[in-house]
Amino acid sequence: MLAAGRVVDESLRHVVPSITFSHAGHHSGPLTVSLRLNGVPVPPVCGPTADERAFSADLSRRGDSMTTLNLVVSAVDVAVSAVFAVFVFLQFARRRSMHQLMWGIAIALWAVAVAAELTATLRGRWGMITYRAYYATGALLIPAWLGMGTLYLISPRRGAAWILGVLSVLSATGILLIGLWPIDSHLLYAVGAGQLPLRVFPFFPVQALLIVLNTLGAAAFILGALWTVVLYARKRSSGARAFATVLIAIGGIVAAVAHSMGVLSGIELFRVSELVAVVLIFVGFLLSNGPAVQAGGAKPQET
Known about the structure:
By secondary structure, this protein is mainly alpha-helical. Helix content is about 80%, strand content about 0%. It contains ten helices and two strands. β1 (about 1-5) and β2 (about 5) form a beta hairpin.
């Protein structure tokens, strides 16, 4: 760059516009913040701002549509999981199988978790009670108790009983920690019901316990279902049961990654994935007890 015939800058040509725009943006940031803090409408700098009526109306319409979607999905999820829980508990009352009791507890916890999500959406934000209820059930316990039911189904009863004792202690510990640990209200209220509040609880001990229970529980549930599919495939006489178990495994995988979907892609995909997961698992359980299985001459899978 030359000025009056003298070299004042030897930067490459494409660098100069970049520096210019970056410098302008550096100063426009504090300026717009200062205007906002003083109640002065912010003019469009790099695009429309919330002070422009058309843009504000568009944001409002988008927010209303997303809230409606969340309400509908969460309400359907509550209904499906509640019916599912009743279905499993009724089977337990008839058959007295421990894996049915474990799965009934897990699906009942699922219903509580999505009910907390629904309540947060109706209120427009997470509250102390709704977030603790969601974290204790949906974030902490569901995968572990689903996995516990699978262990009772595929492993020796004595070993499963020992694992149940350990799980019960860890679950009680987690519930106490989540129920009593102080929560910074600023962290909780900084986001609305359309987002999942993160880092509200410390990594140790709360999040560390969550990681352990989620990882082991999801692994037991999904791998147990896949192992059952392999056994059916070897027999070559239980196609309906194999298909039902595949649905259950897919539902478990979707449920396992649902939270990551919420963090990476937004609460809408998170709640839709929750609903898809519980529907897949429910349909798998229904098919495994349906007439097609019984007509095949195989004993229906107890669920």
